[in-house]
Amino acid sequence: MGINGKYSIGILLTFVLLAAAMLYAFPIVTMMTGVRGITETNFLLTRFIIWGIFFMVFLYSLFIEKGSFLLKKETRYSIFFYIKAVICLYFICSIGGALLNVMIHLLIKEKISDKLFELTPLFKNNYFLLIFTCFTAGAVEEFLMRGYIQPRIEKIYNSPLLGVFASAILFGILHSTYGTIGQVVIPFFIGVVFAMFYKIYSNIKILIICHFMIDFISLMAMNFMDIKHLFLL
Questions:
Q1: d(Cα 171, Cα 157) in Å, to the nearest integer?
Q2: Which segments of 19-155 are extended strands (E)?
Q3: What is the pTM for the complete model shown?
Q4: Is the separation of the CB atoms in 222 and 123 below 8 Å?
Q5: How many domains, the chain?
Q6: pLDDT averaged over the chain?
Q7: Mind listing the pLDDT tens digit for each residue in 112-152?
Q8: Which of 173, 183, 167 is closest to 23 using CA atoms?
Q9: How far is it, in rounded angstroms, from Cα 145 to Cα 36?
Q10: Which domain holds residue 72?
Q11: Rounded to whole angstroms, how far apart are CA atoms 99 and 122?
Q12: Which residue, 156, 3, 147, 145, is CA-closest to 74?
């Protein structure tokens, strides 16, 4: 099998494993613990499952593809560039996402995700779970979606544009388990912004930091905001 074939299998493997985790992680953990419902322990264990997927894909790249996990060499930048890039990305994604969310809410009167309602109480004053969840999302999702999938799609089809949009589409689809249109459209938008940044600047660490910030600030706001206003996030 050629390297493009191995890349294709790796992309499919990554997406299927992540989708399976989004759909079945809680039922699996519930069977393991014997505790029904979304509890802090069950939710924490699902984050370890997501880390397990990352290590599986890493081992696949190491032993099957026999190459580097990150096809794009990381470009070094100054601390000033890091700060400027993170702030700019954060505001682009936050403002753009908020506008999209308001438009969707006005057009179809979309309700808040039931899953979001269930998850919100878990983070109430539980700062370890909150930080670990944000770090897991930031690191694993960026390493897999931008660091792993995007450049491999680009290599297979020799199309940077396809790498950007295909990885963003997959990113949006993975968030569809939240059950709302907004939770697909907004991640797709963020996926496009992040993928374009990664294509131009080749630095996954900046994306991880910014992804962490977006999730962290949103979850922190949930600790102080009335549940009925969560659609703004």
A1: 19
A2: none
A3: 0.94
A4: yes
A5: 1
A6: 91
A7: 777 777 788 888 888 999 999 999 999 999 999 999 999 99
A8: 173
A9: 31
A10: 3-232
A11: 27
A12: 147
